[in-house]
Fold this sequence. Notes:
The protein is built from 5 helices and 10 strands, in the order ββββαααβββαβαββ.
Amino acid sequence: MIGLNGINYFTKTLHKGYPIRRLETSIFIGYTLMVAQNYGGIYMKIRLLTKEDAEIYLAVRLEGIKENPEVFSTTLDDIMEKDDPIEYKANFLDKESDYTIGAFTDEGDLVGVATLKTSDKEKSVHKGKIVAVYVSPKSRGLGAGRKLIDEIIHLAKELGLEQIMLDVVSGNEPAIKLYEKIGFETFAKSPNDLKYNDQYWDQDHMIMYLKK
C-alpha cells in the first residue's frame, strides 16, 4: 500500500516466518522486527538517527568505549574533552555524508548502532565504509547486529554505492563469521593497527561488492 507522501509500505517475511512491517524512502529505512525467544517475542525498531538523538547516542558510544575499546577509534578522553560532547555527537549525526542507524527496544532504549560513511569526492563516491558497530551486551544474541548491518547494506544500495568496507579486530570470530555470512570477504590485515593503554589490536579489512 502507498502511505502519506508517497511512502511505500509493504510486508516482508523473515526466513523464520515472523513478519516485518517495513517503510522505505531513498534515504531512510525503518521497520519493527520481532525476534522469537523461548519466553515470547522481543521487538526491536531500527531507524536512522538524527541530531535529536545525540544524547542517547553519546550514552551508547561511551558504554561501547568502556565495554569494547577496540571497536572505536576514539577514546573516552577524546569525547569528554570536547567543550560539549552532546553537541559534538549532534554534529556527527547531522553530517550529510554519514548515516547512523540505531536499534531500539520496544521500550524505546537505544541498544545498538552502526554508521555508514560515504564520500562526495569524485573518485570515492562509489564506495562507503561501515564504522562504529556496537550492540549493548544486554541485547546481544537477539539479532540486532545482523539487522543493523542488513539495513546499512540496503541503504548503501539505495544510495547507489558499488562497494562497502569495514574493519574488524582480528580474532573476533563471531563478528567475522557474521560478516562473511552476509557477503563480506577479507582483503587485507593490519598488525598492531590500534593501540590503547599499551594494548595492541590487529585488524582485518573486509569488503563487500554491491555491484559486480
